[in-house]
Amino acid sequence: MQYTGLIAYAYYKRGHIGLLFLYFTAFLFSSKAARSQEPPKRDIDINQFVAALFPVPSEDTDYSELFESLLHLYTNPLDINAVTADELSGTLILTDVQVRALLSYREQAGPFLSLYELQAIPGYDLVTINRLLPFVTLNPKTSSIREALRSPGQHFLMFRTGRVLEKQKGFLKQDSSSHSAASYAGSPYNAYLRYRNARSGSYSIGFTMDKDAGEALWDWNAGRHIFGADFSSFHAQMMNRRRWKNLVLGDYQMQAGQGMVLGAGFSLGKGAEVIKTGYRSTLGFKPYTSSGEANFFRGAAATYAIDRYTTISLFYSKTKRDAAIDESAAGKLVTSLPINGYHRTSSEIEKHNILQEQNIGAHLLHHLAQNGQIGITALHTFYPTTIRKRSLPYNQFEFTGKHNLIAGLHGDYRWRNFHVFGEGAVSLSKGTGLLLGNIVSLGKKWDATILARHYARSFHTFYGNAISENTRPINENGLYGGLRFMPSRRWQFSGYVDRFWFPWLKFQVDAPSSGFDYYLHCLYKPSKRLNVYALMHEKHKQRNAPENKAPATGLVMSVRRTAMINFEYEMPMKFSLRTRCQVGDSGLKGKQKSKGITVFQDITLHLSRIELSSRIAWFNTDDYESRQYAYEKDMLYAFSIPAYSDVGTRHYLMLRYTISKKMKVWARWSQTNYTQLETISSGLNEIRGHKRSELKMQLMYELN
To answer: Which of 88, 350, 362, 366 could serve as a FRET partner for 414 with CA atoms 20 to 30 Å apart?
Structure first.
């Protein structure tokens, strides 16, 4: 067979004894797979992948960027023969030792002839390879854009809509005698339209249109960048055209260094992956394809290779941002920049895209062969109106003015089993940010990391997302340590401790404060089908005492704890089961705490053209303080992380039906039943009754 000859040739060419095994495994594959250089690409459950990284979701984190980044990587896999160390680290799958092993193997043996060859790399087992395969490919070189356009790797049109089935207060007709005229401007249906035409490593063209429930179906205001839908986004990208490595027009993001100045998309943060927590990969420009309405650039960007090891990136952006403007003071002042993206009521619509923002930036990167890199980043941001937050003590060192300049120096270096990295930056206010870290492999069974961070109270970075306990890298010092022990392929133990300090006041914290959290995780994987893990997470954090009303009073320590045990069993392409029990409590140290528990059962069935997924969950919490969060399986390019609070049950049923090779359809119904509530939620989202149901539909048509 052709594939057998390929492996035999590889064995002869390289003289690598591991490839002898590949020669024999070639006979195990079907004739169709044997004629290919790649294993058949299988669908992956992004929700399950994210749940493994962050078993305990946080309400302070926007996970849409993580889902979008992983889907972007899945639909634009990395060329195994051109991938860099930073790109491999960005998959969140490989350890530093495994990254070095792959690059060393490629350097010594030459380009990969087949993805089956991954089995010959020292330290790569089948579990690791199966997790990596969806995100890598073996691309033949494309000589022109015209040829790439003829054979796109991804070309689809997708539409999704849904609504809450019960009547919410904002959609009810207002009584003429009512003192409140507040209501939503649009229908209770949400809508999402997406088009994408792309080939990995060559080009990408696409647009996204999104309307939230309660927003108007159609509007046009070019001055505010409103083009039909409440939010619309477009991009056109071209890559690897000789020295021009990346060209983007439209909406895009930028990831450079450790995210001090430019941190596109999602930062890994603290979770089950305790070693790579603090490290960010320098990935450069990428198209912005999410439906989030903030934290992206709109304009033009380019990356040019000065020589083999040095690139320069330049970009310009001019866009509109939501803003709250106060005109009662002397002149106009912007008091806040909302980022939730909701424009349903008259007050929300008034803030929609009324502030112009311009950005101009540059990034110079020099690679130190394959061992490391050093880079310089600068970003200048302009506004036509002065930004000044409300005059409150905790806002004293927040950004004030019309423009901000921030510049940083970053670098990392890999030497033997050590990987050191860091970045330092300074903003126009002279506030400084510094992050230093080291990842070390202590033999085959132990990995460790230590990370120190400092963000001054006057450090202003608008597009940075370096690791922090706060939602932004400002007013924080911290020291993080993580450890992972793998005594065998079946067992893995990991944990971290993070100590943090806040030198200045914060919202609802009227004095300098501190805290710490720790995390313990145990994974048992006796086979490819069974996966069991248990974890415990505890966070201590100072805040104002509930009875204190005057500022500058003493602080109290709040404690939040979560523990869970999770069982997963999978028969590939047949069915999968997941059972979880998680408990937690929250409250003041030394006081009685609010407690909560959630138990749920998931099942997914794979039939010839149908995939059925469902969950039934029971929860019991004392109040909202002890709420529980859990991921739910959702449609492609969608995600769901509901909060389980009070007492009740929740269940969902999702169907994915493959109508043909070109068309797929999804339908999802979910419902939460509360046993002790007569009304759900509050404000315009209020529902009279004890249940909340949601129905969603999605259609995807492949245009290849």
So the answer is: 362
Residues facing residue 293 across a β-bridge: none
**Paired tokens of 647:** 């007492």
The answer as to whether 30 is a domain residue is yes
Quick: pLDDT tens for 603-623. Answer: 999 998 999 999 999 999 999
Backbone angles phi, psi at 289, to 5 degrees: -125, 5
Of the candidate ranges 171-185, 256-270, 282-296, 563-577, the one whose mean pLDDT is the lowest: 171-185
Are 315 and 254 a contacting pair, CB within 8 Å? yes
Cβ neighbour number for residue 309 with a 10 Å cutoff: 12
Would 16 be classed as within a structural domain? Answer: yes
3-class SS string, 307-320: CCCEEEEEEEEEEE
Least Cα distance to 74 among 66, 63, 62, 84 occurs for 66
Q: How many domains does the chain have?
A: 1
- Provide mean pLDDT across the span 180-201: 88
Tell me whether residue 226 is in a domain: no
Q: 621: which 2 tokens?
A: 């919490």
DSSP, residue by residue, 375-387: EEEEEEEEEEEEE
User: How far is 343 from 336, CA to CA, in rounded Å?
Assistant: 15
Band (142; pLDDT cuts 50, 70, 90): low
Question: Confidence band (pLDDT; 50, 70, 90) for 133?
Answer: confident
Tokens of 420: 């050191």
- Helices (runs of H) and strands (runs of E) counted in the chain: 10, 36
How far is residue 33 from each of residues 44, 74, 678, measured CA to CA in Å? 19, 20, 58
- Which residue reads 């063209």 in tokens? 205
456 Cα distance to chain centroid: 26
**Closest to 532 in 3D by CA, of 579, 589, 464:** 579
Q: Rounded to whole angstroms, what are the CA distances from 367 to 228, 313, 370, 456? A: 44, 14, 7, 30
**Is pLDDT of 509 > 50?**
yes
Q: What is the largest CA-CA distance in the chain?
A: 87
Q: Which residue has the higher pLDDT, 306 or 141?
A: 306
DSSP state of 509: B
Write a three-state SS string for 387-448: EECCCCHHHCCCCEEEEEEEEEEEEEEEECCEEEEEEEEEECCCCEEEEEEEEEEECCCEEE
* Residue among 297, 255, 229, 273 nearest 69 (CA): 255
What are all long-range contacts of 387-396, with beta carbons under 8 Å and residues at least 24 apart?
Answer: 387/333, 387/334, 387/337, 388/333, 388/334, 388/335, 389/335, 389/336, 390/335, 393/505, 393/510, 393/551, 394/504, 394/505, 394/506, 394/507, 394/509, 394/510, 396/504, 396/505
Q: Is 272 left (phi over 0), alpha (psi -120 to 50) or beta?
A: alpha
Is-contact 466 433, C-beta < 8 A? yes
Amino acid in the structure at residue 130: N
**What's the whole-model pTM score?**
0.89
Which residues form the domain of 138?
A: 2-145
61 domain-assigned: yes
Ramachandran bin of 608, using left for φ above 0, alpha for ψ from -120 to 50, beta for the remaining angles: alpha
Beta strand pairing call for 355-368 and 310-321: antiparallel
Residue with tokens 């806002």: 395
3-state secondary structure 323-373: CEEECCCCCCEEEECCCCCCCCCHHHHHCCCCEEEEEEEEEEEEEECCCEE
Q: What is the DSSP letter of 167?
A: P
| Alpha carbon of residue 357 to chain centroid | 24
Residue range 19-71, pLDDT digits in tens: 444 443 443 333 334 334 566 566 667 777 777 777 777 666 666 677 777 77
- Which residues, 6 or more positions from 367, have their beta carbon under 8 angstroms from its beta carbon? 309, 310, 373
